[in-house]
Amino acid sequence: MTGSRPASALGRLALQPWLWAWLGALAVWLATIAFTRGQGAGEVLTAAFTFGTFFVIVAIGQMFVVTLGPGNVDLSIPATMTLAGTVAMKLMDGDNGMLAVGLLAALGCGLAVGVFNYGLIRLLAIPPIIATLSSSFLVQSTAIWTNRGLRIKPPSALADFATAKLGGLPALALCVIALAGVMHIVLTRTPYGRAVIAVGQNPRAARFAGVDVDRTRFVTYVQAALFAALCGFCLAGFSGGAALNMGEEYLLSSIAVVVIGGTSVAGGFANVPGLWGAALFLFLLVTMLNTFGLGAGIRLILTGLIIIAVIVIAGSSSRKREG
Amino acid sequence: MKSMIFAAAAAGMAVSFAATPAPADTADKRIALSNNYAGNSWRQAMLRSWETVTSQAVADGVVAAADAFTTAENQVTEQAAQIQNLILQGYDAIVLNAASPEGLNGAVREACGVGITVVSFDGVVSEPCAWRIAVDFVQMGKDEVLYLAERLPEGGNLLEIRGLAGVFVDDAISSGIHEGVAENPQFQIVGSVHGDWAQDVAQKAVAGILPSLPEVHAVVTQGGDGYGAAQAFKAAGRPTPVIIMGNRHDELTWWKEQKDATGYETMSVSIAPGVSTLAFWVAQQILDGAEVPKDLVVPFLRIDQDTLEEGLADTEPGGVANVLYSLDDAQTVIATAQ
Description:
The complex is a heterodimer of chains A (323) and B (338). Chain A is mainly alpha-helical. Chain A contains 14 helices and two strands; from the N terminus they run αααααααββααααααα. Chain A has one domain (17-316): ABC transporter involved in vitamin B12 uptake, BtuC (Orthogonal Bundle). In chain A, strand 1 (165-166) and strand 2 form a beta hairpin. Chain B is of the alpha/beta class. In chain B, the strands form three sheets. Chain B has a six-stranded parallel β-sheet, with helices on both faces. Chain B has a four-stranded parallel β-sheet with strand order 7-6-8-9. In chain B, strand 6 (156-162), helix 6 and strand 7 (187-194) form a beta-alpha-beta unit. The longest helix of chain B is centred in the N-terminal third of the chain and has 19 residues, at 41-59. The two termini of chain B are 29 Å apart. In chain B, 55% of the residues are buried. The model of chain B is unreliable at 1-23 (pLDDT under 50).
């Protein structure tokens, strides 16, 4: 990634770790519209951007966490989404004037969960996987306790924004594309982003180089929880209210999007463009298998096999790059 | 009001029971609820129904205690350990919503072995010593197609939204739907997706498959997914088909809005979460020495165009249309099975 190696533009492109997710997304999209003989090609893409948006929001936070190095992962994302969504919807109670308050409340939930997570990891020295998993039970129980399964409609302004389209693309997706652009700069151009990568590659070396490892980790876990809270807020606005199981499928997907997007599971290497490619790929993959009309068992097996294939191909290309 | 809905739901089994035996025989008995999952609105309503009915029963001195226990992780091993704890705590009966039809049989057999009455409902267990209050999910799926055959005599294209892959309820409802379609060949299932009984999952799955489908005339569902399907059709700019609903408050609210705006017609069917209270009374009856067949069937709770307002008024926001069962209802169900 240093760019010092002489190579043709095409050769450099082929070495980009995010390329494979995008190629995978393109391939399954083409397979889908080949099956339907071109019917609904555009609509499928719009739907992919609509739902990919939510994957990308949580995956950005998860990517920074995973990049911190082996063992770093945030398993409290689904519970945080649910808590933020339910608390915000309950507080706003459908009132447009409360929109800012609701958003702040959601982010407040995220902030609290993030600080609590890192407290468990740092002060009690609990491994991140266990710490975030156990805090997710507390958070999910809090969500159940605060709203007892109530589904409160979002304020009309939020619902309109979350479902609005600009020139065929969902407005929310455009915002999240911009957000991904900002986070790309944060990752590659700011001291914080470089510190995350340095800590992921070697925390001791990073410390000797003057990186505040604790602060970097703290900010990263809080950031992941904030993105989860933001996603819960937007998703509740989009799907007409918060539900207690709204975050369920974002646990594995948030990790899958990060890994398929070409971020190293071992930490130290990350990229943002791959997140969008992987989010589109995952949605289009399920859509393709649904369109083919295959049974649930075969669908799940194929989903697993195709994801493994993409990771293996992307992994072997990045080994070539490093080697 | 609740009993009016129940009357509609139980129209098929109108057996009158006048005599109520004295409840005093079970006054010193303790009943526990072992529940495997609490993370959706149906289960929340199920637990609240249990709380409402049993706290009254305890206050009335019908039973000594009726405590509810829910496992955190929806795991078979965890619930088996929980049942063993309940055995040690000396409950007289365990009312059970099981995480698996077979996985808990060992723990259930242990309970039976020390003389504890085990009544499973909703998620029933196959162990012969336990009672089962089962739902005829196959019939539920078939009823959806039978309704559509009346509504759309010329037939049409169906989109099927299934539940959670690998759960027997999903297979049962789906096989009922397919049975119904086989008997009514004017219908074709043109697409099938898994909605996991959740509005947002259903919305996503339907939005993905819709562009590739021809015109869809009706959507057959499993409950918890109708509102999400409606949202997906709206977002795609397609005409709204007949979407079978599943008694959720958001589904009924949406139906009511459409009914008022355009005269939209459909039906809604599901299982009332209050089935936990039916299981409670059945357990109480068994402890009281009543002769109860091992296999009982819960009536569906069905809402039609003319009972929509009533059903919606009785459903709390965010909840599921519900019935709190009484001792009389339990005796009716038992008598029907005999």
